[in-house]
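Section 5.1 Outputs to date
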Amino acid sequence: MPRIRSQSQSFNLYVSANHATGTMSGDGDIKQLFRLTNIGGPEWTYEKAPISVIGKLAPITRDTTDSPTVSVPFSYYVTDFENEKNLGFNITTSGVSGAFVAVTTGAISDILTKSTLKDEKNYFVLVTPEGQDAISRSGALTDDYILGIGNANITNYSIEASVGDYPTASVTVEGLNLKGQFGKTGVINSIGAGSLSGVGLWHNTPAINPVNGLAIEGLASNFRLPAGSIGSTNKAFVLKPGDITVDLSSASGLFADTTNGQFNIQSFNISFDLARDPIQSLGARYAKSRELTFPIDVNFTVEALAGDLKEADLRNHVCNTGVYNAKVSMKRPDCANTGATAAVIVLKGLSLQSEAFSIDVDDNQSVSLTWLGSIGSPTDTDNNVFFSGIAGY
């Protein structure tokens, strides 16, 4: 029957484990992303400018030298770093026990080095008929629909938490192609010793060759979605504000005393953009590659109730801004308050950028502090962001 509307239970999101133009036909080549709270788009743009010539009022055509852009922002509850690992981040894994492990490799090191397994991936949005849970699907059925985003890179990542809410990560990816397919297709693939089977189970990759703009073809690039699930039985449903600590003992404010243990933090936000510079070339229909632009800044913002103040002079801060480190730790919920550490973010090489106090009638004074850092090379342990925690079960 015709689809009148689509509601949230009908959607699920997947990502390729390998490079966008690599193998996707094997078990484990497509990974589900868990605890989704928002999927924006997909949205595509292909803006054409008028081509005008002397002697004619109206444009003779509309065209562009740019390639299409497909954008997909999405958000999810942070319960560990399983999603981040599947997105291509470097996670120093601590195991299910959650013991903190010292980290020496930056969180986006493999993205910086354009590892063939980490930087450019394909994403897949599964849409099921109304009233049917997408995460209960074993692949894609006849009435389902799959939107594939080909050759996609992460362009923004942020993670935040606040009192009265659950920690959430937001990601934006941008790709070169968008391909829609119904759940049942005529695509076949080779399974076993040269046999052809599985008609209707397989789908064509949305990835393209950026040089000639043609679709990537071949049995190895065909894919089928894995069975959906709510996640491992060991995976926490959500993390709570009471299980989150923000360590500012090495990242004091200028006037606000953040180091005395009585600094009541209300929220934090960590974000960085991974802007891309398209590398064009004669003879290539699309950008041959999209290189990261540098420097990559890391913004770290903390909102808190203003407590003790300390002596300070902004003039002295101007002369010596200092270098700071900070750490955010998140534990699994546990009634005895002994839950395993699920995720740890360490920020090094921060500089205090601003400090803003505010007071309203019949309210507590608040302070907002913002630090700015940079993501250095994969081996830079002084200026970087590091992720450690549970990344699989």
